[in-house]
Amino acid sequence: MAANKLKFSPLLALFLLAGIAVTSRAGDIAVYWGQNGDEGSLADACNSGLYAYVMVAFLSTFGNGQTPVLNLAGHCEPSSGGCTGQSSDIQTCQSLGVKVILSIGGGAGSYGLSSTQDAQDVADYLWNNFLGGSSGSRPLGDAVLDGVDFDIETGNPAHYDELATFLSRYSAQGGGKKVILTAAPQCPYPDALLGPALQTGLFDSVWVQFYNNPPCHAGSFYVGVPAAEAAAGSGYVAPGDLTSAVLPAVQGNAKYGGIMVWNRFYDVQNNFSNQVKSSV
After folding, report:
1. Distances (CA, A) of 190 to 80, 119, 147, 157, 198
2. Domain parsing of the chain, residue ranges
3. Family, per the entry (predicted)?
């Protein structure tokens, strides 16, 4: 299949007008890990030296009274305690300065929040099982993750703003370690599912999905890109086009943070981040 030609959308033109650049600044790369057993270990991803953030994906079932389910595809089986060994990899990543963040939601699964109390219950679960709290059944072992990523792609937007608020309050606990909040909204603004949550102003970084959205295949903030044509239904931008045309157009924006890559498996296959890192 031939590579998609780079197209400049009206949204990109808006960013060009709004982010008049005098100087550009370096950014980081964030990547999703956990949905392909052939992508290598979490430690492999961090030891590559490519990433500042790795999102462990996904907690695909939560809320509405359901028992939460962590789905790490072919890596390990959480229900039998088989993923607790990931704790050492998480600590390896953190020792290298890489932030390891649990991503909740995803494109498939069963999740949603039915009430304020439901949001509080999910926040408590995340705190006690993945963050700085304590539980006898921590799916990823004793390592303390750095935060929570909201990749909400199905259902409705109700109560995610409250979930973000409850999680942010935990930053004052656990030795004062901040609970980092990130999100992966679709690029049309406001995102239909994450709009109210993002309006809380509590999110530290936002990796906008500038793919699978034909009107806006290039943009700003953390620019979400697929690492290969096969990684997304549409919106793939070749490394050369990304570094020569897209990134120079947005790096002068004060909100620019870098790029988000979906996902680690395709990144390895296509050598995508290695090709663009020096220009991010």
Report:
1. 39, 21, 23, 11, 9
2. 10-20+28-275
3. Belongs to the glycosyl hydrolase 18 family. Chitinase class II subfamily.
Distances from the Cα of 172 to the Cα of 145, 175, 180, 224, angstroms: 15, 7, 12, 30
**Residue 117 CB neighbour total at 10 angstroms:** 11
Distance of CA 274 to the CA centre of its chain: 19
User: How does pLDDT run across 146-188, given as a tens digit for each residue?
Assistant: 999 999 999 999 999 999 999 999 987 756 789 999 999 988 8
| β-pairing verdict for 99-106 and 53-62 | parallel
Q: Vertex 251, ends 246 and 254: CA angle to 5°? A: 140
Whole-number pLDDT of residue 216: 65
State how far the Cα of 129 lies from the Cα of 122, in Å rounded to an integer. 10
Contacts of 215 (CB under 8 A, 6+ apart): 9, 10, 11, 187, 188
**How many Å apart are CA 130 and CA 176, to the nearest integer?**
16
Q: State whether CATH 3.90.950.20 applies to domain 10-20+28-275.
A: no
Would you please indicate which residues are annotated as catalytic (active-site) residues? Answer: 153
- Residue 99: strand, helix, or coil: strand
Listed residue (225, 222, 252, 152) closest to 192, CA to CA: 152
| H-helix segments, the chain | 10-18, 42-47, 86-95, 116-130, 160-169, 195-198, 239-241, 247-250, 264-270, 272-276
